[in-house]
Amino acid sequence: MWDKRFGGTDQDYITCFQQTKDGGYILGGYSQSGIGGDKTQATWGVDDYWIVKTDSLGNKEWDKDFGGTNGDVLYSLQQTADGGYILGGSSLSGIGGDKTQSTWGGYDYWIIKTDSLGNKEWDKDFGGTDYDFLYSLQQTADGGYILGGVSNSGIGGDKTQDTIGSLDYWVIKTDSLGNKEWDKDFGGTDTDWFYSLRQTADGGYILGGYSYSCIGGDKTQATWGVDDFWIVKTDSLGNKEWDKDFGGTNDDVLRSLQQTADGGYILGGLSASGIGGDKTQANWDISGSTYDYWIVKTDSLGNKEWDKDFGGTGDEDNFGTISQINDGGYLLCGTSYSNIGGDKTENNLNAEQTWIVKTDSLGSKQWDKTILSPGHDEYGFAIQTMDGCYAVASWDNGGIGGYKTQAAWGTYPDYWLVKFCDSTFIQANLSATPNLCPGTCTDFVNLSFNATSYQWSFPGATPDTSTATNPANICYANSGSYDVQLIATNTNGSDTLLLSNYITVYPAPAPQAIAQSGDTLFANAGAATYQWYFNTTIINGATNYFYVAPSSGDYNVVCTDANGCEVEAAVFNVIASAQSAVFSPQSAEIHPNPVVDKLEITGSFLKDKKQIDISIYNMIGEKIYMALDCQLRTVYCGLFPSGMYWLEVTSGEKIFRVKFIKE
After folding, report:
1. What is the DSSP letter of 218?
2. Residues 67 and 42 sit within 8 Å (Cβ to Cβ)
3. What is the pLDDT of residues 50-66, one digit of tens each?
4. pTM of the entire structure?
């Protein structure tokens, strides 16, 4: 674990961060600090955008300040495809400083594009005639940008649609140079406060926030309580496709969303609701006066699949981010006033601390972590890093203590970045080939997380225990079902995985034997496949249940049953006849072939009018027809199932054998 503090001599509030392509980090927010501490440029006005770039170990590489002559608050940033950065927030500034366009009304959206070193390339202002606050932006697949926020403006300036209620979602699409392409307003009849947007896999957009509105305008569902999560799905041109409302009987505030790997959506925010409406779990504080984290998973059409509540006995004051991570689970982060209790397993070091929750793919909690500091935290953002660890950012005003190794520059909040690889969470997991034949072996692959030592148990196998990381050649002699147990351990504890009846050992195949009739060798019928060998060398094409031995020597056959299990039989010192026991095709014939009903047998060897034996076998060697001491040369096949068969005719010591097809 390491941590880094970044700040100036006044107030610095982090609002966004992400890992960069080089493994470092970009942190952004707004600052009132002049030059001093980690800040190398003075503010232009009251608040300026302030970004800090670090290397992979959190060491500062550079910082940049951007502002006009009034208040400018950064809320969202992203590294762009060219290695630069797009910054977005709200501005009350006119022309001056880094701002090249005046506002239309009160606060406007303000975006800045920089190069990879943070040098400004261009800036754009978008607004209506009232207040417009940008909270989320993203570079789109076409190289342009999608901007989302909340608007109180009517038609005018850059806004082409009036608000429906008092506040609406407002979305702007630009090209790669920040020139506006279109804008869209979405709202109900009351207040709708936007927080987050993402471009979706189909090229459209998912928008999210919270709504006080009943049915009306763009809203097709009434709220359950005071305010609810509200999401809107649009096509690539911003036209609404559907909307969904999720809530309980009290306040429910969506702060973050993401499209998931299965095409659905994960929504995260805060809830003061008990059970009711869309909420299936009560808050830990049942008074309804405090918030818990609340997440909702939907399918691709916004239909709820499940929801989960996470909290302690105090107030979870902020919710920063939710994201799906590498194992398909979810990472939640915000801040909490709670000590141990409910879902929270660690006490705070001060009043409010950053709190992370990790879930599996179905939202069940796997672990939680409190980021300890002597100071007071706000916001709280977490990401999974490229190496599978975690990075957490918040603002904090504390001194040294807990996980904090650098004091704040003053009494004011600074940006605080913490990187950790979780070693408290241990998960035992494994894989192997689970279906075996008797007397065979399998290798086990260890898929455990965060363990350093292992104890394996294989009842019924040889060996029956192991401490290897990946045990190999674990052998099972007898048929049956067998348990496997793995205990994965590190210095913080252990996790036990017991898989009942994980290994299935099939019954042994029926014993095989080889019978000889003249120079023809017969294996027992009923196997799925056959393979013959001569003097231990495979005989290519010899895959029937019988084989005509052309040469004297040792023969064996390997027979495989329906489970893929093999059994072998051998015959030694076979004496091949000087005269072949099989007539050539010129000596006997069958017709027609294929046959529908009646099969005729003809040939020179039948001229002596001797009685013959006739047998028919299917292709797995089962005898399905037999006629002994027969003078008839006709076989009636009408009742045979369609398929391929062997006809065998014996006359004295001579044998004729041929395949035919029954249609």
Report:
1. T
2. no
3. 999 999 999 999 999 99
4. 0.68
